[in-house]
Design goal:
With about 850 residues, this protein is of the alpha+beta class. It is built from 13 helices and 47 strands.
Length: about 850
């Protein structure tokens, strides 16, 4: 320890003056004032001091007027002798980091001074050795580590953290004592302020005349879970008298003789995830310790050809993977197989390491921060609509759970019974959808019947002025007739794919119809963001829910502008949006009715919306002529959907939007699949699950070649919900589904990514073409010049990994979400290891799964 340089007292700050009144406490008069001493004034250059440095304190006794008083000598004392000392002359020395307090007194008058004792950051660390060799049994060695600052001055009392990379071989205490436990090698690291030094540690067991001698091991490779036979001499015939360690891990002995041991190797989780390598097999018997080398293979070996893939569906399988020595490139997905958003995200790290052909494990992993994909802040034009629609759906789940359904027997239907005639006025209640109690609050309206078909009735609000603006009431009969005919002829068969839309009708208004009410009041709900909606209040009696119309109803917006063209509020734009929207909402009517009539809870919101998106997809087939398994590209529907307003494309005039919301939602999901989930919103306003959940179910139905009608009807009527429903309908477990679906999303129809397995394909849609179309027609690929979320050819960005030695942190992967890695292996003579680890020392999450595709 040495004092600070004279020009830098304490090496900290300017000179400081501290004046502390004497006495027994603040405001207390001392009982005695020798020689008129009223207080003691303390002067120090600084109250901040570095351990090992000294500073001079001066004490001056003064009277009540501040004049110097001659008095007995000042007595100095440290009140915290473990951190600070002071001699009889007032020389203060910092001993350790923390807080130090000294006292100066004249008689009973005293002053106290507190110092903050701090060290500068550690700039370097020296250790007395860089390699040590310890012997069993009982070998130890205490390492001496000294930290220094940037000037090479020793830092006193700096906290040092010690760790061993293989504590099963040798441990290290908090004071740097290394203790040998098993034959093998490890490294001990001492660290402070991000600076570290590593010491190599080797543990041996010198043989003795009575030590066991190992002459052979069969088979030549030790595999977790297998049986290993060890031949030799000097073993104990008593099984329990032989202790066997392989790479420091205890291995049970199941049979023993003086010349042979039979071992039952524990599962792979008993060993750390390391490349296949030669380790020590250690036998301890009453005569001593015997050691022999053995090849240990902990990792699952993967020798994938280009285009070949594998899905690892348990945490045990996914934890440790080793690729065959070859130059290759792999696309790796890391899904979170948690089954609900309530499970929360998982955190983990991905470690890569290699073992050269000569058997030397590489050192010095490169830390790669998890790629920040910066989720787009520009929402798609359907995002807010979908998010609000999801809120209504959740509210409907509550209504269905609390409502009491009519229990009278199902009555036979009479065709068109009590259906309102065209031109008749019907008194209705339009629920105030943007209020939380919309089953109670409503508006009374008079609605004119503008279409009365075999299954659907359309009614138009008759209000001539709304918000001081004339409505189009009475001016749209032709539009409504066209729309109604399409609902009857085209949409109704689609609804029957999901169930019976009128299964509750005999318990309600018994008119054999679904009624769609068009009102300008709906335009005002949520500032016009919701085109149409269904409320479950209508499936229950009005005595329970006052807004109920006691029937199957949909409430929809109306156009507000008489102008021609595709401007805001025009008929053309309204017709473009409303057609598929009604298919979506009428599907909700179907599934709600089927579940309520059976006394079943409604489907989980994410899957209910996914299947409603399928109703829109089936509508797109009917309108655009697409087919299942058609691998349709952007020209099939999306091109006309996005160009419907462009006079330069007359063939697209009058075409409805159909698939655009599916793909916009899926784009949003793939923009950051670690933060988003098909299982619902992961943040306020997140509606990406509309697209990802649709893609999940579409991929699953097609991959299993399931009949759509049987699949969707069973989904509606089974009484199961969510993932359980998907598993039962498909015969596939969630753990199987996620890795393959994530790989399919990442690779479908992308150049340079051609999987051998059709399970890594979307059979009905060419996602690469559709995403490129969004960027070309709506985004920056075509120099649209507008604010857009579609700023690249494909929304998914994999984290590139070019190093063989790496550590990638994934601090948050949402349930149902996944990370995507692009791993390039350049060392053709090395085994590349891929390990999934817990995040910063935590346990590896049990929900982690792995999908791997070799792409080069």
């Amino acid at each position: 320890m040495r004092p600070p340089p004279a020009d830098r007292p304490g090496r900290i700050g300017p000179w400081a003056l501290l004046l502390i009144a004497g006495g027994l406490g603040a405001g207390c008069e001392p009982p005695v004032k020798p020689s008129g001493v009223r207080r003691v004034e303390l002067f120090v250059p600084s109250t901040e001091l570095r351990p090992g440095f000294e500073i001079r304190a001066t004490a001056t006794p003064v009277d009540e007027n501040g004049f110097l008083v001659e008095s007995p000598p000042v007595k100095w004392r440290s009140l915290t002798p473990s951190t600070i000392s002071v001699d009889e002359e007032g020389l203060v020395r910092a001993l350790a980091p923390g807080v130090g307090v000294i006292r100066a007194s004249v008689g009973s008058v005293a002053a106290h001074l507190a110092f903050t004792l701090v060290n500068p950051p550690v700039a370097s660390i020296t250790v007395d050795v860089d390699t040590i060799l310890l012997s069993l049994p009982g070998g130890t060695r205490t390492l001496a580590a000294v930290p220094f600052d940037t000037d090479g001055i020793e830092i006193i009392g700096a906290p040092l953290d010690w760790s061993s990379s293989a504590a099963r071989i040798a441990t290290v205490t908090a004071t740097g004592q290394v203790i040998a436990l098993a034959v093998g090698g490890t490294s001990v690291t001492v660290q402070a302020d991000g600076v570290e030094r590593v010491v190599a540690v080797f543990v041996e067991a010198p043989p003795s005349a009575t030590s066991p001698v190992i002459s052979g091991i069969a088979p030549s490779i030790a595999l977790p879970g297998a049986t290993l036979i060890v031949n030799g001499t000097g073993f104990s015939g008593n099984e329990s008298a032989n202790t066997v360690l392989i790479d420091g891990t205890a291995v049970p002995v199941t049979a023993a003789s003086g010349t042979q041991l039979i071992l039952a190797l524990p599962p792979a989780a008993s060993w750390p995830c390391e490349p296949t390598r030669t380790v020590s097999l250690q036998v301890t018997s009453p005569g001593g310790i015997g050691v022999a080398p053995v090849m240990l293979q902990v990792a699952t070996q993967r020798a994938l050809a280009v285009g070949q893939s594998v899905s690892l569906t348990t945490v045990g399988e996914a934890r440790c993977t080793e690729f065959a020595p070859t130059v290759a490139r792999y696309l790796v997905t890391v899904p979170n197989a948690a089954r609900s958003l309530g499970s929360g995200p998982m955190a983990l790290s991905v470690r890569g390491t290699t073992l050269a052909a000569a058997g030397a494990q590489q050192q010095g992993a490169t830390h790669i921060a998890s790629l920040s994909t910066s989720p787009r802040t520009v929402p798609s034009r359907t995002a807010r609509r979908d998010a609000l629609h999801a809120r209504l759906l959740d509210a409907n789940r509550v209504v269905a759970a609390t409502g009491t359904s009519a229990r009278r027997a199902l009555a036979p239907r009479t065709a068109n019974a009590a259906a309102p005639a065209v031109g008749s006025i019907v008194q209705l209640r339009v629920p105030l959808l943007d209020q939380p109690n919309f089953c109670t609050n409503f508006s009374l309206v008079g609605a004119r019947t503008v279409y009365s078909g075999a299954k659907v009735v359309l009614l138009e609000d008759t209000i001539p002025l709304f918000g001081g603006v004339p409505t189009l009431t009475g001016q749209m009969d032709v539009d409504y007739q066209t729309l109604g005919a399409e609902l009857d002829a085209t949409v109704w068969p689609i609804l029957e794919t999901f169930g019976d839309p009128l299964v509750m009708d005999s318990r309600l208004d018994d008119n054999g119809r679904i009624l769609v009410v068009f009102s300008p009041r709906v335009n005002t709900f949520f500032s016009g963001a919701v085109m149409a909606a269904v409320v479950n209040c209508d499936f229950f009696a009005r005595a329970q829910f006052p807004s109920s119309n006691v029937g199957e109803y949909v409430y929809a917006q109306v156009p507000t502008s008489p102008d021609v063209g595709f401007g805001a509020g025009t008929r053309a734009r309204w017709m473009h949006e409303i057609r598929a929207t009604l298919a979506h909402e009428l599907k909700h009517v179907t599934s709600y009715a089927e579940r309520i009539v059976r006394g079943q809870p409604l489907e989980e919101s994410w899957l209910e919306e996914a299947t409603a998106r399928h109703a829109e997809e089936l509508f797109a087939r009917a309108i655009f002529g697409t087919t299942r398994f058609g691998d349709h590209d952007v020209t099939a529907t999306l091109e006309c959907e996005l160009r419907a307003s462009d006079p330069a494309y007359p063939a697209c005039a009058g075409k409805p939007r159909a698939m655009r919301p599916h793909l916009e939602g899926l784009w949003s999901f793939l923009d950051d699949p670690t933060a988003r989930s098909p299982l619902g919103p992961t943040a306020p306003g997140d509606a990406s699950f509309y697209g990802s959940a649709w893609s999940l179910t579409r991929w699953l139905i097609d991959q299993e070649f399931l009949a759509e009608s049987a699949f969707f009807t069973a989904m509606t009527t089974s009484g199961q919900s969510g993932i359980e429903n998907l598993q039962s309908r498909s015969g596939r477990s969630w753990d199987e589904i996620l890795p393959e679906w994530s790989l399919a999303l990442a690779t479908d129809d992308r150049s340079g990514m051609t999987p051998n397995s059709l399970r890594l394909r979307f059979l009905s849609w060419n996602l690469a073409s559709l995403f490129r179309g969004l960027c070309d027609l709506e985004g920056t690929c075509g120099d649209a010049g507008s604010v857009t979320p579609f700023v690249r050819e494909h929304p998914l960005r994999a984290t590139p990994i070019l190093q063989s030695e790496f550590l990638l942190e994934l601090p948050s992967v949402a349930p149902g979400g996944f990370a995507v890695l692009d791993l390039q292996v350049t060392g053709g003579t090395s085994r590349q290891l891929l390990e999934l680890k817990g995040f910063r020392g935590a346990a590896l999450p049990s929900t982690v799964r792995l999908g791997i595709l070799r792409i080069e």
